[in-house]
Amino acid sequence: MKTFNRYDLLPCVMLIAALLFWGQGLWIYAKAQFAQVLIADAWQRSLVQPDRIHKPWQWADTWPVLRLQWQRLDAASEDLYVLSGADGSALAFGPGLLSAESASSEGLKVIAAHRDTHFEFLQDVNTGDTLSLQDISGAWHDYRVDDITIVDSRDSPLIVNSSVDGLLLITCYPFHAVNPGGPLRYLVTAYPVPGAGISLAAH
């Protein structure tokens, strides 16, 4: 009768470990995708009842306050829901608006997101591109990218003029850095498209 040693079981153990690892990754991906469905539903409810806060799930500590789109004829499009706040819990599910009070008013809207998820597309954005922003009233506002720059957060704190109507998108840099949390920041600044006005049509 054949006897087994621990080395005979090694392939089975490795297979089980690989399946568990793959299953965990699949679960995280599925959970993230389902969260986006719930956030999109919360945004649609917000458009119907803009005077109320609509959380994507009952225990959520954030909710959608804006919708951001980027599209070019020669590049893939992005359609993102911007959440209230920019702490870790919000940024796990989407871009975060640093000041929720400015979501429905004119002024500079500062939006942050992770470089390897929701703001990964910023590396493909060029000056002259158009970013579209939908507010809680359902109106769309078009902004043209005016400046793209990289700054070192160790040099000085980021100072912005909140009275200027525009968008400032912030993420970490480089986009494909091995170690996260470096000091460099990638900034995309956009201003309202002259004469574009406000559109209620779907983008």
Brief rundown of the structure:
By secondary structure, this protein is α+β, with helices and mostly antiparallel strands. Helix content is 23%, strand content 31%.
How is the secondary structure organized here?
Layout: H1 6-48, E1 64-72, E2 75-84, H2 88-91, E3 96-97, E4 108-112, E5 130-134, E6 140-152, E7 166-172, E8 184-192, E9 198-199
Parallel strand pairs: 2-3, 4-7
Antiparallel strand pairs: 1-2, 1-5, 3-4, 5-6, 6-8, 6-9, 7-8
Strand content: 25-35%
Structural class: alpha+beta
Mean pLDDT across all amino acids: 83
Radius of gyration: 21 Å
Query: Percent range for helical residues?
Result: 10-25%
Shape field: globular
Distance, first to last CA: 72 Å
The profile of the biggest β sheet is: 8 strands, mixed, barrel
Identify the strand order in the major beta sheet: 1-2-3-4-7-8-6-5
Find the count of extended strands (DSSP E, 2+ residues): 9
Low-confidence stretches: none
Features:
203 residues; alpha+beta; eight-stranded mixed barrel; globular
Would you mind describing this structure in some detail?
It is built from two helices and nine strands, in the order H-E-E-H-E-E-E-E-E-E-E. Strand 5 and strand 6 form a beta hairpin. Strands 1-2-3-4-7-8-6-5 form an eight-stranded mixed barrel. It is α+β, with helices and mostly antiparallel strands and 203 residues long. Helices cover 23% and strands 31% of the residues.
